[in-house]
Queue: 4 jobs
Job 1
Amino acid sequence: MAEENKLGLTRRAALVSVAGLAASAGVMGAIPAAFAEDTLAATKKRGVLSTATEMQFPPFDISDNGVYKGFDRELIDAVAKEMGVKASYLDLPWTSVLPGLEAKKFDLCIAPVTITKERLARYAFSVPIADATASLMKRANDKSIMKPQDIAGKTVGGQKGTAQLAQLKAFAAKLSKPVTVKEYVDNNQSYADLAAGRLDASVNSLPNLAYAAAQRADTFAVVSPPFGEPTYFSWVGRKEDAALLDAVNAAILKVEASGEMAKLQKKWFGQTMNLPKTVPTPSI
């Protein structure tokens, strides 16, 4: 595991610094056809792959007293090493991550993003890094929810703008009784309201919920089976940065082939996952 460095820069200072790098890359990439090459070349030249995520999405991304931890942190460090560079990290609210990518404030979004048809038309995705199938979590002592359909007539919360929340709404629309859906800035708020009894269930990907339930087994339990269509998490780049995404994908596959990916999955998810080695056609 790479040594965990304290996040020394304030978010504003980091944004200013990375924005300056992005502006510099933008000048070099004035000709659109050449920009994809220039982004990768600029990354190699400065020796830094600038990334961003929301560090409130365990077990993928965690801010522990200013120290960045989690599956994404360890995987991007391994990927950057394969690419011959180091990774830098920005902590942004989820709703700011993809807009920040489009504004060229950093090179790569390492927040785990669910591959959907709409997003695939707009962004370049890496090969999958984890399962993203939508599931539900309830209070451990709640016997009224034994399967996903039992949320009919109940209140369920999830993070605003996520594919898992969108799938929840579609699933709930088919149930016998209306489901009250509450949207949160981050999943920790949803989990807090679930523990306090203000929600009956929370929605997220199965790996996220399995981690949360394992951390607080006396409070939470995962509802089986998952209700969502099989989906995957990937990292995200800009469409014009095809060369950079090719390099990232090659590095991810090398990390997987070495067995390091399986070790990270076991450490952070409690199980290994068989993932596609190319970007799959999304089911949602």
Job 2
Amino acid sequence: MAVKYTKVNEMKLVAFSTKVLEKTGMPHDDAFIASRLMVNTDLRGIASHGVAHLNGLYVKRLKTGFVKAKPDIKMYSGAPATATIDGDRGLGFVVGHKAMQEAISRAKTYGMGAVTCRNTTHYGACSAYSLLALPEDMIGFSCTTGGLNAVVPGASGRTAGMNAMSFAAPSNKEFPFCLDMSSTMAAWGKVEIALRTGDMLPLGWTIDPDGNPITDPKEDEIKKGAMVMLGGTKELGVYKGFGLNLMIDILSSTLAASVCLPELFQSPSTASTCTHFCMAMKISGFTPPEEFKKGMDRLIETYHNLPKAKGVKNITIPGELEWALVLDRKKNGIPLDEVVIQSLKELSTEFKVDFDII
């Protein structure tokens, strides 16, 4: 079906989202941080994790009290370069941003910094945090657990979290290297987009409790289904996706002495509670930053110059296409589909915030 898109202004969208979040009781600085990270995600073309979630996920949970507008965030540190943050069920954007800033701060002094977070909530796309390290001439890494929407290989139904990760490194090129991926075949947000647009799901993304593929994104079928781990089948390496999923659980949940798979089964109500892990590595602790960036340039150029398969014009690296979208959308606007536009209009009416985003 034809989907209508409206292009909106980046800075106006940040301002609008900030005002809406403030209306829920969030302090201005926290509301701005969350809005900025959300819109950054839309700039990169990750529509599954941007302002599409503002109304139905974040504001909804703030209104019910599941997410605290003014959390009492606390930190424990058992070593100079590491720490654990208790987010007091604050909005994940705020907790995740604090974690990465703390990791960067410790990396400035000790060469590396790592912070794991418990008792927090959905924080959007992992790249929003890994990229924060790059202006400091650092490498950034971020990962998060998600809702109980994935299936463990060999199991039936929703038996694992929608875990994701991002790794980012600077270069002298216009764009940085930025890997941002789910440990499943696709993020759950991609299914939400299909539900909005009516597009069919690619074969292999989702299966029902009996292991049969789901390709028609009808809500009654999707609610019974689960996302498949990266690889899809045993023959194609599904246990690699499962291994990545478990690695993220260990860094984000077990290391933080937080909720993970056993607790999710014992108390399904905890499935919306997320955990995060952020790490920053100071490049100068290994090699001069300019030498590293020159090495990155050579690496990128090598891949760009590889012989092309028939019909292929360009070989791109992770983060390259997203950066091209950032440049275009900063200039020409961010396209939002009509369902998202309507959800923002509803917030405008509910909170009496001017709908000035175009």
Job 3
Amino acid sequence: MASMALNDLGPMLTASEVAEMLHLHVNTVKRLGDRGELPFYRVCKRGDRRFRLEDVMAFLARNR
């Protein structure tokens, strides 16, 4: 697996930020990620999820 610098990924959002942006519950955002409909990255030792803004915008365009 290739390592990428965080700057190469572009702006990153938390699940809560994505939920607010899409007017969804945070659990729904996490479920979309688990199903592979909304790509995410695990960060830090706790494994928090981060979503690329570019991926969120693409998801929004696909699901209008």
Job 4
Amino acid sequence: MFAELSATSNFTFLTGASHPEEYIRRAAARGLGAVAVADRNSVAGIVRAHAQAREIAREVHARQEMEAVDGPIGPPAPAPQPPPRANMPRLIPAARLCLVEGWN
């Protein structure tokens, strides 16, 4: 299993470009088991990443409940479709510590 452990969000100014929510959505779409949002000297992106992870978990549980009752959702279609969300990546809270004076 692969887990991204150094994703820097846009809360690390001039370094990270993506929103924490985008990291979680992409991890779910790619089937990653976990992702760590590690901003520089901060855990600012964790709250939004956590909220997105909870939303994805809610969507996955709702889909699983519907499929348990009605079977797989949607008619068979010859055109390729994106796979449904069935993965709930685990969020690993992290911070990248960059000390000015080094370790004491």
